[in-house]
Amino acid sequence: MANTIKTQVGIIGGGPSGLMLAQLLDLKGIDSVVLERQTRDYVLGRIRAGVLEKGFTDLMREAGVGDRMDREGEIHNGFEISDNGTLHHIDLKGLTGGDSVMVYGQTELTRDLYEAREARGAKLIHETENVQPHDLTTDAPYLTYEKDGETHRVDCDFIIGADGFHGVSRKSIPEDQITEYEKVYPFGWLGILSETKPVHPELIYARSERGFALCSMRSQVLSRYYVQVPLTDTVEDWSDARFWSELKARLPEDVAAKLETGPSIEKSIAPLRSFVCEPMRYGNLFLAGDAAHIVPPTGAKGLNSAASDIYYLYHAMVAFYDEGDASGLESYSETALRRVWKAQRFSWWMTSMLHEFPDHPDFDQRLQDIELAYFLDSEAARTTLAENYVGLPF
Ligand code: APR
Ligand code: PHB
After folding, report:
1. Which one of the ligands is nearest to 146 CA?
2. Closest by Cα among 81, 106, 113, 157 to 14
């Protein structure tokens, strides 16, 4: 074996979860190694989420990477729900007694984390192939990986599986030791990014008989829009012209009239899925983020659910290394799952309330109509929506 490195925490995956944990631990003097399969440019080329809860922004600041986010990110004190052509404002700040969300792209915060890790001379290894965790139920777990034709080994105390939904970590847990809960929705989201001014100062979640649509943004010169599409559609079915015309048809007329269109600079289709793996721990392997759970994007909870896992793991590891207190690690899975399932419920509910379900019976359709009407009419109901959207406490 070519090289053996020794560290305290071996982290698989250099997405937001893995990078954030490595950075937070480093600031507390805890050593880690991050193994990432892709190149840095590839990771930064992925267009992902864009709405951050306060818990996430606090964690960015604690990790010493909040400056650009605080300068360039946009505070959003509310959003709109369009119900078949009529806009209804959800006043997040008023309904929650002062909370809001931050619009700042996952790509940008991942870039900030990469820069911070590099500035601190981090052990962040890209283009690692065939990463494998070993001896997970012993006190001396280790990782192996291949790079440049050689096999390497990382000895550690703990392994963190932060390698996303398709990663190797969850798959290395024996099947009879975990339960997977999954719900697949009968549609996907077609998303585009365009260098145009956002159509509205706040996000618009639009329910329409033609299907759901979302108007979001990354900045005042970069818009992100989505439309619900059947799972059988491909990107080739959707010219830019067809996309813009369908989006307009799903928005209130006065909003559609203001929509600035332009060439798409990214276009992709993502299926919608809810998924949770229980428990989030096997021996000394701890799962975090998309490796353990996926939500449909309707509630903007994917990245934020990853952040709560990292928060719990970070505090548990600091307690372990500083005070020899393993209780946070022992209860990690239970604590994390409690919040994960709340975000799952909210994401499933937002998805169910706002999308067109092709095979819903008429009765369910009428219930869906009245459910949204109830939430828009009742301040008590809008308060629970707002409380969940800004993020439940860690
Ligand atoms: N070995 C090494 N790295 C791997 C492997 C592997 N076998 N498999 C996957 N990876 C890397 C991926 O290339 C990716 O960069 O792990 C990283 C996982 O990152 P994400 O998928 O972004 O997952 P996570 O960091 O948990 O981020 C939370 O929230 O908004 C959602 O899905 C969105 O990415 C977001 C997530
Ligand atoms: C996005 O901007 O990509 C976005 C925003 C809110 C969501 C989902 C996606 O609920």
Report:
1. 1
2. 113
Q: How far apart are CA 370 and CA 372, in angstroms?
A: 5
Catalytic sites, residue numbers: 76, 205, 297, 301, 389
How many other β-carbons are positioned within 10 Å of the β-carbon of residue 198?
24
- Calculate Rg over the CA atoms of the chain: 21
User: How many angstroms does the Cα of residue 224 sit away from the middle of ligand 2?
Assistant: 8
> pLDDT band at residue 1, thresholds of 50, 70 and 90?
low
The rounded Å distance from CA 353 to ligand 1 centre is 29
Sign of dihedral through CA atoms 320, 326, 328, 329?
A: positive
Running DSSP on this structure, what letter comes out for residue 242? H
Q: What dotted CATH number matches 185-272+357-390?
A: 3.30.9.10
Class of the domain covering 3-74+102-181+273-350: alpha beta
Q: Could you tell me if 98 and 105 are in contact, meaning their C-beta atoms sit under 8 angstroms apart?
A: no
Instruction: List the residue whose alpha carbon is closest to atom 7 of ligand 2.
Output: 300
Q: Which ligand is nearest to the CA of 288?
A: 1
- Give the model confidence (pLDDT) of 48-101 as tens digits: 889 999 999 999 999 999 999 999 999 999 999 999 999 999 999 999 999 999
Q: For the chain, which residues make up each domain, given as ranges?
A: 3-74+102-181+273-350, 185-272+357-390
Measured in Å, residue 300 CA sits from the centre of ligand 2 at 5
